[in-house]
Amino acid sequence: MSIKVIIMDVDGTLSNSQKVITPKTKEALIKAEEAGAILILASGRPTSGLRDFARELKMDQHHGLLVCYNGSKVVDCETDKVLFNQALSVEEAKAVLEHMKKFDRVRPMIDKGEYMYVTNVYDNMIQWNGKPFNVMEYESRGGKYKLCEVDDLAEFVDFPLNKILTTSDPEYLQAHYKEMEAPFKDTLSCMFTGDFYFEFTAKGIDKAKALDSVLKPMGYTQDEMIAFGDGHNDASMVKYAGTGVAMANAVQDLKDIADDMTLSNDEDGIAESLYKYMPEIKL
């Protein structure tokens, strides 16, 4: 079967280390669209953090889709219509945020509208790769959010949340994530989405469920899909697609389950793989 659907994680996959799409990869993807394929960005990022990439790839002109919040929401780029949405209930969100108070080095982050809410905007640094890293600036800028401080997130939340993102030093999260997820292990989806991110979404939510919910009704079959990823939270979609591709910079667990491997996100890995599976678009 020919490739009709191209599914991509963003950070570490579509974008390079400078968080941009390289010209070669951009041109290959636009040529794929012109050849009739649709593009799907599937990321832990919020909708607002994906729109610039989608516009750059002309997805709003070619029926592209945004799988946001690690699969809890799907938006049509062309119409802005929400095609799938499964959020945490207010009660679930309050319970998670209350539980997070037990972990003094964990900072929860939630969003609503144009704001990202935290309890202390000045408690924004973690240690990452041996250096201080302003994780709140990174996340708020990436999501196009204004940063806002509230005294008690659990008390503040009176609206459904697509996800609760928590952050800390990678070593701290590795040491404590089982305690963090323990009360919710059977009722929510809890997972690492980066070495300094651990997040909570509604039960059963992942990228594959979101894709299956919208693509099957559109008439696409899995053998017409190719998916690219680099992280643990890409595993479901890499297994779901007929052709699942791990980037060279991917975690080993993803490489182990992928059908194929390509070059890294700094070496135009997506473009090189598309030339292999869609030779008609080769420049």
**Overall geometry:** globular
**Spatial extent as radius of gyration:** 18 Å
The biggest beta sheet reads: 8 strands, mixed
Strand content: 25-35%
Main-sheet strand order equals 5-4-3-2-1-14-15-16
Oligomerization status of the protein chains: single chain
Q: Helix/strand-derived class?
A: alpha/beta
Mean pLDDT: 96
Verbal overview:
With 283 residues, the chain is an alpha/beta fold. 29% of the residues lie in helices and 25% in strands. The chain contains 10 helices and 16 strands. The protein has helices at residues 23-34, 51-56, 90-100, 135-142, 153-156, 170-181, 207-215, 235-240, 252-257, 269-277; strands spanning 5-8, 38-42, 65-68, 73-76, 82-85, 107-112, 115-118, 125-128, 131-134, 146-149, 164-167, 188-194, 197-202, 225-229, 243-246, 260-261. The strands form 3 sheets. The protein has an 8-stranded mixed sheet with strand order 5-4-3-2-1-14-15-16, with helices on both faces. The chain has a 6-stranded mixed sheet with strand order 10-7-6-11-13-12, with helices on both faces. The protein has a two-stranded antiparallel ribbon with strand order 8-9. β6 (107-112) and β7 (115-118) form a beta hairpin. α1 runs parallel beside α10 (269-277). The protein is globular and about 55 Å long. The protein starts with a strand and ends in a 6-residue tail after the last helix. The model has no long low-confidence stretch (mean pLDDT 96).
